[in-house]
Amino acid sequence: MIPKRPINADVPAAKKEEKQEPEKAPSSEAKAPKKAPAPRQPKPLAPKLLAGLVVLALVFIVVAIVGSSGGKDDPGGAVSPAPASVSRDDGDETPSPQVAEALAFPSFATSNTTRIGGPDPSSNAAGVALAVFPSTTPSQRPAAVTVVDEDDPIGAIAAAVLMAPPVRAPILFTREGELPEDSAEALAALAPTGSKDTGGVSVFAVGGGSPELTAVGKVQRLLGARPTQFGKASTIAGAREELAGPPKHIVIAPVTEPEFAAPAAAWAARSGDPVLFVEPDRLPPETAGVLKAHPKVPVYVLGPESVIAKDVVKEIEKVSKRVKRVAGDDPVANALALARYGDGGFGWNVNDPGHGFVLARSDSPAGAAAAAPLSASGTWGPLLLTDSAATLPQALRDYFLDVKPGYTNDPTRAFYNRVWVIGDQEAIDVVQQAEVNELAELAQIGGGE
């Protein structure tokens, strides 16, 4: 059941300087995709704790900077980040987790990173939703949320398009048809009431949803005419089109390899471009139907030939006039390919400093999709993937070096990078977070005067 006491109940009310009127609410089956990994132990963090951590992020950032400086500033006046350098020039300088812990290195925030550290997709989704929509006042709440089963990464990736303006519905997860505690508390805090932009809908339920949702407001169930992943994605695309108009681009992703599809969720949330799915060697009729309805809309195939064959692309080309592939050989490289890609109005085209990024584990595509709201708010940036808890992939490290910000004379006028880290230390440990922090750090270039 949804708790009566919302997650943000302990936040003091804002001082009333003038009266504010409360907002009024307007009246053929594919192969099963890889399941998301089982929730990690221990018990998921309560959203009250997650929300508190979000509120305290700035405090932790200050602690990270001041507590780690050791009283030593660099020549440009910037404070050295903590912990000690994680440079890999000699391969031996990376500190152990025990050293990082001894230095009181904050596992939630550093000077250039912020972690949403839940142990499973549902707790991370709740943390992301409350980070983007703090919900301490009605104006900070979303008009709607999207609810997806935690074991349905394909549904979550497709549903990320509902986070794009003007709908702006973050994702929460159910588990075996029920709202887990963190999702229920987040939903109570977000308190969506529907709006003109959402068609009066408070909850978009992808799949069966949960019976508890009817207590929130108007629920629109997005099941699809046929109970397939392809039908579900096409139904979500149709719902988005009804609310926001026809798509400017369409993304095609592999249904059997959701780790290759995950980066599309961030782009969908940013752009409003729907994500549709194909099998490795077949264009399903549900996806073909959407393409036939929009033959002039450019189509971008996300993933290498190993997950979407050439023949499938040829089938798409029979329907769509403009088709291009964006791909990397593995999930990490595939995410980097989309982050770098630019083609007119499509693609992040992030090849220079001054951007936000979201970093998640490649083996948790549902969790990566749940982080999509971070790519459509704040510092708006692409999803990047790591395939290890302890080690930053070399390709990802090289990319961060390519976009590392710098300055010559005045750091306050420079561009900055900021990275959201998704998951607890079982997913991405503090040492890897420290390395990302250093790679995102503003550096002095040349001799300033």
Write a compact overview of the structure shown:
Helix 8 (258-271) links the parallel strand 6 (250-254) and strand 7 (275-278). The protein has helices spanning 47-55, 57-68, 97-102, 121-132, 153-159, 181-190, 229-244, 258-271, 285-293, 310-319, 331-340, 365-370, 394-402, 430-440; strands at 113-116, 145-149, 171-174, 203-206, 219-222, 250-254, 275-278, 299-302, 323-326, 356-361, 383-386, 406-407, 418-422, 443-444.
Keywords for this structure?
449 residues; alpha/beta; disordered N terminus
Walkthrough of the structure:
The protein is α/β, with parallel strands linked by helices. The protein has one domain (47-444). Helices cover 31% and strands 13% of the residues. The chain contains 14 helices and 14 strands. The strands form four sheets. It has a four-stranded parallel sheet with strand order 1-13-10-11. Strands 3-2-4-5 form a four-stranded parallel sheet, sandwiched between helices. A four-stranded parallel sheet has the order 7-6-8-9, with helices on both faces. The longest helix has 16 residues, at 229-244. The model is unreliable at 1-11, 13-32, 34-45 and 53-106 (pLDDT under 50).
